[in-house]
Amino acid sequence: MSFYIGLLHYPVYNKGGEIIASAITNLDLHDLARLAKTYGARRFYVINPLTDQQDLAKRICQHWVSGYGALYNKDRQEAMSLISVVPTLEACIAEIKDNEGEIPILMATDAGKDKGKRVNYSLAREIVASVRLVMILFGTGWGIAKELIRKADYCLDPIIGVSHYNHLSVRTAAAITLDRLFSPSAKPQKDS
Prior knowledge:
Blueprint: E1 2-8, E2 12-13, E3 19-20, H1 26-39, E4 44-47, H2 51-65, H3 68-72, H4 74-80, E5 83-86, H5 89-100, E6 105-109, E7 118-119, H6 121-130, E8 133-139, H7 146-151, E9 154-156, H8 170-182
Parallel strand pairs: 1-4, 1-8, 4-5, 6-8, 6-9, 7-9
Antiparallel strand pairs: 2-3
Helix pairs in contact: 1-4, 1-8, 6-8
């Protein structure tokens, strides 16, 4: 089984519920690349249609993959080399299809309460173990637009804490998600 992760910057919601393209952050690139490397993702896609944002991400990656950062920190170079910057989810899926010969199962994440095609983590682990290719999509801003969530093959149950507060950073949510799905020590979750 091979898997990919994607960080979607469009279409996502802003605080007011409007669809926007969110900005790329340096911290997301570094932490999600390290996470992808740690859990064995084949690639980490940064999906943003804005050319200035794409250029920013590419400059950051270049520094760590082939610039001074590559000499300074080989571990970071190894992780950052997993990043591909693409303008759309469709371009991401097309690139995966070109490389793998098939379209991956798309598993989206969403902190919302819409039930849709929700799967709990126990079932998601079974799905991931039974297919050859999976793309796990994380959103920025205030979450992935609902029309895109509905197009996904599956949507993972939200990560629920112990208080009413439910606004994890994408880096934190991605780490919890990948650990629940791929860690050999992860025990089946008692999901609803």
